[in-house]
Amino acid sequence: MQIEAMQPDARAGDYADGRRTVRAPDANGRPPIWITPMSRIVYFAALCLAIAGCTRLGTRLERHALPAGAPAVEAILADLAANDAAIGNFRATGTFVLKSPELTATQQLRESSIQFRRPSDLHVIGRKYAKTVFRLTCVGTKFLVAFPTEKQYYYSAKGEKVKGVPANVSPADIAQEMFLPEVWAKLSPRQVRMIDFDASRQTATLEILSSGLRKRPHRRLVVEGTPWVVRRSELLARDGSVLAVTLKDEYHEQEGLRFPARVESTFPGQDALMRFEMRKEFLNTELEADAFDLERQYSEVREKGYERVEPSSEKENAL
To which H or E segment does residue 178 belong? Predict the structure, then answer.
C-alpha cells in the first residue's frame, strides 16, 4: 500500500475557517483532493496499518491436521468434568513416598493413610513399623507438618511455599495438582486445543491456555480414552518451562467413577517428588471427624511440647 503525502504548493490554500485544504487538478487532470480533519485521521490509521503489516511477527504457526476419528475437545472435557465433579472426597491406605533436597534420603512410608476433600484439603499420616513418624494436615491456606517421634512441627497460616519447589507452591497447591488440577466444567473449549492424537493408543495431547488477554499454554495434558482419564499433566510457567509433572496410573472404577491408585508429582530441576501408591480406596465416604481439625492439632503439638522448626531445618531429616 502506497501513501503519498500532499506537498504544499502555490495552488493550494486553506479556507479562512480551516475546514479543509483544496488542491488544484494536477497536470493529468486528476480531480482535487479534499483534506478534512477526519480525512487526516483516516490517512493516519491507514499508515499505521501499512506499517503494522510490515512488522516481523515471527514464523506463522502451522496447524497440523489431526487423524480421522480424533475426538472433539468438548467431549473429552465433558467426560473429565462429569467424573471429577462426582468425587467429593476419598480416603485410602498405602505407601507414601517423599523425596526432597531437605531430606537425606527418599522416604517410603508403607503403612500410610490419606484423606482428601474438595477442593484441596489433605490429611496424610505416614507410618513406619506401625509408628506414626509424619503427619500433614492442610486446610485452605493453612497447613501443619508434625514429626511425632522427634516432637517437632512446622505450622503455616499463610500458605507459604514448600522449600525446594519452584514458584509459590504450598501443600494445598500440591494436593490440588495431584487430585483435582482443573475444574474442567469451567474451561471454555476455546481455552483448550488438541495438539496430537494417537489413534492406536487412543491418547490425545491437550494444551490449556491461560485466561488472560495474553493467552499462553498453562497446562499440557495427555489423556486416554474412552472413558477419558488423565495420564500425564504438566503445569507450565509463564516462560513455558515445566513447574510440575503429575503421572496417574492404575485406574480403578467404583460405582462408575474412575480414580487412579498411583499418583506421582515431581518438580523438575528440584529433585523433589511426592507419590501415593494406594491399596484401598474409598470414594465419597465418611472421613475421620478430626482429620481436618487443624486448630485442634496445632494446639495439641504445642501442649505436648513439640519444638517449632522451619521446613529447611536439618531436623526434618529425622524421618
Answer: helix 171-179
Does 78 lie in the same domain as 42?
no
Do 88 and 50 belong together in one domain?
no
Which domain does 160 fall in, by range?
Answer: 73-313
CA distance 261 to 280: 8
Query: 216 and 238 in contact (C-beta within 8 Å)?
Result: yes
* Same domain, yes or no: 147 and 200: yes
Same domain assignment for residues 239 and 101? yes
Tell me the pTM. 0.71
CA atoms of 131 and 118, how far apart (whole Å): 28
Per DSSP (E only), the strands in 59-106 are: 89-99
Q: Is residue 80 located within the same domain as residue 42?
A: no
Are 210 and 201 in contact, with CB atoms under 8 Å apart?
no
Domain count, the chain: 2
Of 163, 187, 166, which Cα lies nearest the Cα of 241? Answer: 166
Which tens digits make up the pLDDT trace of 119-138? Answer: 889 999 999 888 999 999 99
148/130 Cα distance (integer angstroms): 13
Residues of the chain with pLDDT below 50 are 1-22, 33-63, 162, 164-168, 313-319
